[in-house]
Each structure stands twice: as C-alpha cells, then as structure tokens.
Amino acid sequence: MDAGTVTFARRTTKAVHVGSVQVGGGAPVSVQSMTTTKTADVDGTLQQIYALAAAGCDIVRCTCNDRDAAEGLARIVPRSPVPLVADIHHQYKMALAALEAGVACLRLNPGNIRKPEHIKAVASECRDRGVPIRIGVNGGSLDPELYEKYGGRVTPEAMVESAMRELAYFDEVGFDLVKISVKASNVPLMIEAYRQLSEATDHPLHLGVTEAGPLPGGLVKATAGIGTLLAEGIGDTIRYSLTADPVEEARAGRMLLESMGLRERKNVDLIACPSCGRAEIDVIQVAEQAQAAFGERELPLQVAVMGCVVNGPGEARDADLGIAAGRHRGHLFVKGQNVAVVPESEMVETLVEWAEFISEHGTEAALARVDTEKARAEAERDRAALLDEKGDDANASEAKVDVIRKL
Ligand code: SF4
After folding, report:
1. I need a surface site. Which of 28, 242, 340, 383 has the fewest CB within 10 A?
2. How many whole angstroms from 305 Cα to the centroid of ligand 1?
3. How confident is the model at residue 5 (pLDDT cuts 50, 70, 90)?
C-alpha cells in the first residue's frame, strides 16, 4: 500500500460549533491551547492569542476566574482571530459572566462545580444562547464522592461516570451542545478513560494528557496519549498541556495532526538525515538554521537537509525540496532531481528561496527554470569524488565487523 493513502478511520461523532470552528461530525481535528496571561490584561492576552493562531491553533481557552477576567474577555472576544473558550472553576457565576462577554464555548469542571442547580442554570443559559460546553473531567480534581465510590482511586470508570452525570443534568434542561474530555496525567489511565467514554457517548471528544510537564518529557507523554487515541479514530479536538510557552503547545498539536495525515500541511515539514561518517556538513546546525529560517512561514512543503550528496538525494527523493552537502557545496534537488549547486554558506537561503518559488508556482515550474542535466552532472562529479576519497564504507563498519569476527 502507498504510504500516502494510509488513513485512520475516525469514529462518528455529533457536530458542535465553537464559533466558526466545527468540532466533531467529520470536521478536521482541531488544535487548542490556553493563554497563560491574566485575562484582565487585554493587550497581553490578545498578543498571546495572535501568536497561538499564527502557530496553527484553531481555538484558544482563557481563564475566567474573577470579574476582572470576565471584563477582559468582553474586550478580547471582538478582537480575537479565533473562537475563545472560557475556563470555569468553582464559581458558576463566572460562567454566566463569560457568556455575557460573548465567548464561543465554556469549559466546566464537574469536579468543582457540583450543585445541580448551578450546573443546570449554566446549561440553560448556554441552550438559550446556542453556546456549547466542554465537560472537562480531570483526574486530579475528580468529584470527591466518585473518588470514594471507586475505592479512593482515580479510575477510568470514575472519570467516565463523572462526565455522564454532568450530561444527565444537561439532559434535564434539554441541552446537548457538548464536548467532553477525561484528562489524566497518567497516560495509560487517560487512554483507557477515553476508550470507555467513546463507547458510552457520541459527543465529540477533546483529547489531552493533563499536566504533561516541561519539554521534552511533556511532549512525549502527550504524544503517546493523544497519538494512540487518534490512531484508533478517537478524538475530535486536541490540546498539549505543556509547561512551556503555549505557542509550543499549538506547534506540537499541529505537527502531530499533520504527521498523522489528519490535517493539511501548513508549514514546512523539515526532515534531516541523522548524519554519519559521510556527512560533509554539521547536519544538526544546518537543520536548525533552516528550521529558524522557515519559522512559521506558510510553505506547505517537505524540505530535506542531508549530510552528503552520495546518499542524500536518493534517501530524500520523496521530499518536495532538499539540499545535500558535498565538497563544500550544496546540491539542491527537487523531488530527487538535482537542480542547482551553491556555495555551502548559501545552502539555507537557497532552500528558502526555492521553497517560496515551489509553493507559489509548483514543482514542474521549478524544474523547468533550470538545466537539471547540468546540475545532475555536477552532483555526480562530487559524488564520485567523495566515493573515491571515502570509499563505499565511509563509516568503516565492515572493517569493524572484520575485527569483531576475529575476536
Ligand atoms: S549517508 Fe549521507 S545522507 Fe545518509 S546519513 Fe550519512 S551523511 Fe546523511
């Protein structure tokens, strides 16, 4: 099977609209993050929201923990480039205030807003305004009664029951614009809770590993939990909860979805060889320079940085564009075909220039603008010279194997 045609079948869920973004019902999986500013700081919060949107975030959540935050939201909502969700804990009146401010969705934690009359008052108001709610169950703040019922432990069953109890209150007032999350910091627990939840309801699910922690461990834990579920077709919207700049959360979410073929590529997908004894450049350094140069540019291409011209163009022949080093020169190739030779110092800027050209005019036009035969001949000359210098076994693996055999 062609790798490009492999897809993950997604579970069917109801559609809910968070402002302009559809969640569930077959919509693309969306990326969420949360601001870390005081919501009362309108300019600071908007700045972070814009940075998140630029990094690929579709929906942003802001805390609404007091009256100043609610007033901030009233000023932020009309200027936000993406729909906003108000995060509500403990005080149901803050949910009503956030609705007044015009947010596109609420997040309620059933573990800390527990009075049925408060829950139903918020759900009724959301029903009348057509605003959805995320039931955000969190393993760390599970309803104490459920915690006791399940033996003083947080279990998948307890988290699912917490969500289903909240849903039952919503049902009583005829409200069903609902997304649900059952996050835990323990990855196997979180995976099992979502599996059980997906059997119990067809409301769209918001995936996350809560308090995943700083990089790189947080990234690994969140990817293990979210990626596993997405591969099983579970999940309609995701958030990486990292102890880092929230822009990293948005980038990670976007990259996960793009790498799993669940979202169209938006920015450059930079691949690079791991480097070896053949490398003619410091691959790590050049790849980092290229990453910084591409930044958030909207160039939906796969770009390769390869350490040598001996194997690089072949190993990265599926990339839209790449560069391979050889004898102090950079050999540029498009879909595996050599197109230009540039001094080593110009490798990164040449990559950016060609990426912009391909993004605008396409691969055929890029190949048509140069004499590919001349570039191929030059690459072949450098390749042959390197093979001459280093031989077939640049890593001296075979010599080592010989020694081992003689031990
Ligand atoms: S052979 Fe060349 S392209 Fe492959 S890992 Fe080594 S340096 Fe990189």
Report:
1. 28
2. 10
3. low
Handedness of CA 144, 189, 18, 61 (dihedral sign): positive
CB of 151 closer than 6 A to ligand 1? Answer: no
314 Cα–ligand 1 center, Å: 10
Tell me the residue length of the chain. Answer: 407
Q: Whole-prediction pTM value? A: 0.85
Which ligand 1 atom is the nearest neighbour of the CA of 274? Answer: 5
Q: Which helix (H) or strand (E) holds 375?
A: helix 372-390
Alpha-helical segments (H) within 77-186: 92-101, 116-129, 144-149, 156-172
Give me the mean pLDDT over the 27-38 stretch.
97
CB 136 within 8 A of CB 164: no
CA distances to 22, 24, 296 from 252, rounded to whole Å, are 21, 21, 13
Residue 279 beta carbon below 6 angstroms from any ligand 1 atom: yes
Predicted pLDDT at 57: 96
Residue nearest (by alpha carbon) to ligand 1 atom 2: 308
Q: Is the CB of 287 under 6 A from ligand 1?
A: no
**Closest atom of ligand 1 to CA, residue 309:** 2
Nearest alpha-carbon partner for 259 in 53, 2, 3: 3
Helices (H) and strands (E) in the chain, counts: 15, 15
Amino acid 162: pLDDT: 96
pLDDT at 3: 52
CA of 144 to the centre of ligand 1 (A): 56
Ligand 1 site-directed mutation target among 282, 285, 305, 308, most atoms within 8 Å of CB: 308
**pLDDT of 325 higher than 70:** yes
pLDDT digits (tens, 9 = 90+) for 205-225: 999 999 988 999 999 999 999
For residue range 157-202, list pLDDT tens digits in order.
999 999 999 999 999 999 999 999 999 999 999 999 999 999 999 9
Nearest CA to ligand 1 atom 3: 312
Residue 379 is predicted with a pLDDT of 87
Whether 160 and 200 have beta carbons less than 8 Å apart is answered as yes
Token reading at 370: 């140069």
